[in-house]
Amino acid sequence: MRRDQITNHQRIVIKVGSSSLMHPETGQPDFARIELLVRELANLQNWGKEVILVSSGAIMVGRQALGLESRPDTIAMKQACASIGQSRLMMLYQKLFSEYNQICSQILMTKHTIVRQTSRRNAKNTFEQLLKMRVIPIVNENDTISTHEIEFGDNDSLSAVVAALINADLLIILSDIDGLYTDDPRKNPEAKFISHVEVIDETIMALGKGTSSDVGTGGMSTKINAASLASSFGCDTIIANASDFRIIHRLIAGEEEGTFFKNHPSKGMTLEQFLGDLSD
């Protein structure tokens, strides 16, 4: 598939991490960047695309509201921060989207949402109805009630599950790196950028690196795993840099930015299998 064909994709899932929504110097929300993100998504909707946002940030916003200097390290404190932050984050999104005459909604998920057939079907039906009404669903893990047994663990995985669940055409994972490299470019200046991945094999999987962020939870490894799941369900994936959210419309226009992962549908892949692998 050529990049210029991406513009034909209709149903698009966009994942944004906590570190992309904050000022790195202070850990406070970056309102200018969040407003630009909202404008880009509203414009995609006006373009006629179906848009789903998977947004981290609830724990970050709750942590900021409580004046905590570092990320909470207990489940109870994480859940408390998420409980405070999720409502504040949605209030911010709703205010900004309303300025562009766009309605958004909130969907909170856990593994049980997908593993259980009835709740998975209900979730899919909810997504379909919202998209039919031209609403932009904003998805996050339900951190307030999640425990190790029922959590996705990172929103890279969640975004891929959402893309698979709703049969999305394209998954865009925005991060603090330009895409996939042969090595960590922050440590190895000789690392080469990879703009196109035809097949996600063991060599590609081995390129995954950890994260050094104090805010996010997923590194390159989780992003490659997410691309692999999306690929198995017929969804293309792009991993790109979130430093300028205007990259979203450039990617949809087919410009050569980020790393593009071509889809390869697999009849044998199931969401239950993927979620089981996350627990191993």
Automatic annotation (TrEMBL):
Family statement: Belongs to the glutamate 5-kinase family.
Residues the entry annotates as binding substrate: 56, 143, 155
Record-listed E.C. numbers: 2.7.2.11
Top-tier EC class: transferase
UniProt keyword annotations, A-Z: Amino-acid biosynthesis, ATP-binding, Cytoplasm, Kinase, Nucleotide-binding, Proline biosynthesis, Transferase
Localization terms from the record: Cytoplasm
CDD domains: AAK_G5K_ProB
Pathway entry: Amino-acid biosynthesis; L-proline biosynthesis; L-glutamate 5-semialdehyde from L-glutamate: step 1/2
Biological process, per Gene Ontology: L-proline biosynthetic process
GO terms, molecular function: ATP binding; glutamate 5-kinase activity
List of residues binding ATP: 15, 175-176, 217-223
Annotated Aspartate/glutamate/uridylate kinase domain residues: 10-241
Record field: catalytic activity: L-glutamate + ATP = L-glutamyl 5-phosphate + ADP
GO cellular component: cytosol
Keyword Metal-binding in annotation: no
Residues making up the signal peptide according to the UniProt record: none
The protein's name in its UniProt record: Glutamate 5-kinase
Functional description taken from the UniProt entry: Catalyzes the transfer of a phosphate group to glutamate to form L-glutamate 5-phosphate.
PANTHER family attached to this UniProt entry: GLUTAMATE 5-KINASE, ISOPENTENYL PHOSPHATE KINASE
